[in-house]
Amino acid sequence: MADRRLHTNPASSACDARAHNSDHDLSHPAAEVRLNGSHDPRAAASLEEAVLQGLERYFLDLEGAPASGVYAMVVHTVERPMLEVVLQKTGGNQVRAAEILGINRNTLRKKLQQHGLTAATLADSDPSI
Fold it and tell me: Considering its fold, how many domains does the chain have in total?
């Protein structure tokens, strides 16, 4: 049976927490602007390309088998690393993380619980934003 997991190239993913160039590093001064309502089109295009490549790979891996639940799979797959990176970059500060994500703090807590994450374990010792 085909592997139904979403395959992405971590090196090309804008969500890779280890990315340290100015296009993807949330500690870069331009990140504050991107995270507060506007975004760097190059970073968004890179993330979009990673998702497109992952979806193409997913459908190839199905080898003709019917797909289902693709929306939920993609949201779940992208949401976890996004939460991890933002919480690491805020030193585990849930109020700040919720502001950056544009969601309510209670929604953030619910999403953390759904993914089995805790803010304390994701906190960086030196918050960068």
Answer: 1
Looking at the domain assignment, is residue 87 inside a domain? Answer: yes
> Domain of 71?
10-122
Note whether 77 and 58 are within 8 A (CB): no
The reported pTM is 0.62
Residue 65 has pLDDT above 60, yes or no: yes
Specify the CATH number for the domain of residue 109. 1.10.10.60
Closest by CA position to 119, among listed 98, 80, 88? 88
Convert the pLDDT of each residue in 29-48 to its tens digit.
444 444 445 567 888 888 89
CA distance 107 to 15: 20
Which distant-in-sequence residues (6+ apart) come within 8 Å of 113 by Cβ? Answer: none
Compute CA distances 17 → 68, 91, 101, whole Å.
29, 14, 16
Asked whether residue 3 is assigned to any structural domain, the reply reads: no
What's the CA gap between 81 and 111, in Å, rounded?
Answer: 12
Tell me, yes or no, whether 5 lies in a domain. no
On the question of pLDDT at 14 being above 80, the answer is: no
Question: Given this model, what pLDDT does residue 43 score?
Answer: 83
